[in-house]
Amino acid sequence: MADIRPFRAWRYAEHLSPQITNLVSPLFDVVSEKQRQKLYQNPLNSIHVSVPQAENVGDSAQRTFAEWKAQNILVRDEKPAIYAYYQYFSLPNAPHQYCRKGFICLVRAYDWEEKMLLRHENTLPKAVNDRIEILEKTQMQVSPTHGLYTDSKNELEALLDHSLRNTIYETEDYQGVRDILARIDDPETIGLFQEKLASEKIILADGHHRYESSLAIKNRRKAQNPNHTGEEGYNFHLMYLTNTASDDLKILPTHRLVSDLPNFETAVFLEKIKDYFAVTEIENPTEIDEIIRGKSWSFGVLLKDSAFKIRLKPEVFGTIAWKFPPEVLRLDVTVLHYFVLEQVLGIKGKEHRESPYLSYERNFTECWKQVNAEKAQIGLIANAVSIEEVRSVCYSGAVMPPKSTYFYPKALCGLAFAGLE
């Protein structure tokens, strides 16, 4: 069973609520350097505990939290609660506004081998170490990870809708998304959420590094505590849970840029790629993402002054030599990484996570600009992974290639903090 709990959140004091727009910040792994520098100018912005402007991030975040608590900048809610979190957003070329409905709670920090919480990607060690340092020094969970459950009958939605009568915050964030946070502190209602999640496994959609840090702290504290019961605060992790059955759960594509690859020649690349793909030149490069949209094993290729649609020849699919489960092999991103990056460009699969020649970009227009300005040699335009594919891979026990998913919109940092008390 997935064990979820209410908690007494640390939040900005009531007199600061009207300023919440200036206090929240993007998550540590998506905030740009330009955004950071602007946010650092506000001494109360949550960026100071999420991505401290200091060499020793843990000590800096610890001092900031201590000051904010002592000065009643942060105040702890009196009652344990779960927090309804709604995000209203739009997408390009979409006819209406979406609303992703979810709630923030504590989830038991399950070890991977327990298979109650399922991951779909691996983590980078340095990013995990930074998160561990902040969590260990502050004893505070700074921002929620994003988890997925399945409620095909939307049984919890009415309870979430009702909770908006107790709205705490409403703001428009850096993504242009309208965020609303509300409190649910009625024990009977919370029990309904716990009962629903008791039969569910949870898929970790976003925040693998932060979850890994919770696991590390839990196992460290457990080993140090001879009276460990499993009920201590360090056994739980802060998470934002949303429903996979919702039509408003959106995953956006992440594109690949190839830069500074030695001995790269456009003519040789185009000739070699024909060994694996049917290649069609596209007259207008700005339309290529629309041309490939929804077409399996199809990709856009942006080059200086030219663009192409490529589609894998079905007969070559069986030549993939990577030893992955079928659920992973069939993914567009696997096909892209194996046939284009490894076979055509010679960038070996084991190097893809940290290759100096690869970068990742979610904005198609930015990809086109990078290639057109010759800051990148190739732009590889991909389709989004579907939620069905995410579920399939997670339940297979495998993980996807790096940067396979981009769940949109991102949750905010600063709406609610959770202590390990």
Gist of the model:
The protein is an alpha+beta fold. The chain has helices spanning 33-40, 47-50, 57-70, 125-138, 157-163, 187-197, 208-224, 266-273, 288-292, 326-329, 332-344, 364-372, 387-396, and strands at 4-5, 10-12, 74-76, 82-89, 98-108, 117-118, 140-141, 145-149, 167-172, 178-184, 202-206, 236-243, 250-251, 255-258, 277-281, 298-303, 306-312, 358-361, 378-381, 407-408, 418-419.
Question: How would you describe this structure to a colleague?
Answer:
The protein has 421 residues and is an alpha+beta fold. 29% of the residues lie in helices and 23% in strands. A hairpin with an 8-residue loop joins strand 4 (82-89) and strand 5 (98-108). The radius of gyration is 23 Å and the shape is globular. The two termini are 23 Å apart. The mean pLDDT is 93.
